[in-house]
């Protein structure tokens, strides 16, 4: 009974530690502001809010709690030594990193900053200030890098799994400036999860575990207590060349590959602590390589969501709309409506007016094959049947979406119109061998008057074609 009471007291103390820290609240507020910003941006770009973000916020919070429980269970067998000062250091560093880029607010990046501070302090072993700063300095000097590295590796593996499973649900259509200086449809795949961790730490006044954690076996003899460590995980990826499902698979696969490499380094660091320092640097490099290869793919391949010559490309579908009920998906093209060819939203509206109560659709899937659909039209249906189309040259773009930071969450999203550029030839959109050439305009016949001959001379005979 005393053990049960002690366990309940320990759990209550851990929950109290989580609720009394400001960081988990800050992470939750950041998630709310992020989805609020997405809704405002959708209205500015497409004149409609496509998604209801209350469900996304709830899914984010619940998923983060479940992920935190799973990692906490694994860390209960691995073991970690972490002090309250280190928890505050990590939270402050995560907030500061988010001011530069939201995707930097990850434990791996915060651990890299702490490692740099730790190495600097090693260079000044005799410097030990007093007071609150002194306690922080002392905690960093005795930081458990192997244990924190193990947590960051587990977080990355969980992050890859969540991104693979939920990235599509957290994706949002946007319009950005393309390589040719024209508006291009894209997807902002920005998924972030606040994760509360509950960690066993050695304590002389706590309960004794029935097992011995792997890391630091001698320090667990006297007992343990429970502490809370709130962190953030997530990715911010922009794709204009792939469908969100395909992009999520690529990113998740690379995160898993780099995470498995780091599992080896984390195991070695638990065996020999000095390996943790280069291992943290390698973890940051591998993570940035994933983002680098993702950006390089986007620049090397052709954009997917642009206006084509066969129909009009669909950027996204509003949930529960007529198009969603018919099974139309992003990446497909609306080709014909009621027998009329569709090349812009105006032609779609004209074709729908042919029969206001019923519509017959011919849609080209991603492979270019036709599928035929039909549906009754009811009062209150979306005027484009719930389809968001690829932008034209006059569409506004979001200039900040590719460098989103915490500062942007506190302000309304900006949109702007691109300056008019040269008109690209329509042949650029056709396969090689099917280029369209400008029709030759026949020259007006020349009247050979004496005045013309005196001024220009006689015209030359055209060369005979060989």
Description:
The protein has 13 helices and eleven strands. The protein is α+β, with helices and mostly antiparallel strands and 466 residues long. The chain is elongated and about 80 Å long. The strands form three sheets. Strands 4, 5, 6, 7, 8 and 9 form a six-stranded antiparallel sheet that branches. It has a three-stranded antiparallel sheet with strand order 1-2-3. α2 runs antiparallel to α3 (53-78). The N and C termini lie far apart (106 Å).
List the main descriptive attributes of the protein structure presented here.
13 helices; 11 strands; 466 residues; three-stranded antiparallel sheet; alpha+beta; six-stranded antiparallel sheet
Give the SSE map.
Blueprint: H1 2-20, H2 23-46, H3 53-78, H4 84-98, H5 107-122, H6 131-141, H7 145-170, E1 171-177, E2 183-207, E3 224-239, H8 244-271, H9 276-300, E4 312-317, H10 322-326, E5 333-337, E6 340-341, H11 345-352, E7 358-364, E8 370-376, E9 387-389, E10 396-397, H12 406-409, E11 416-417, H13 450-456
Antiparallel strand pairs: 1-2, 2-3, 4-5, 4-9, 5-6, 5-7, 7-8, 10-11
How many strands in all? 11
The global form is: elongated
Oligomer: single chain
Give the C-alpha Rg. Answer: 30 Å
Number of helices: 13
Mean pLDDT score, rounded? 84
Low-confidence stretches: 421-445
Query: Termini, distance in Å?
Result: 106 Å
Q: Which percent range fits the helix content? A: 40-55%
SS-derived structural category: alpha+beta
Content of β-strand:
15-25%
Series of H and E elements? HHHHHHHEEEHHEHEEHEEEEHEH
Sheet having the most strands: 6 strands, antiparallel
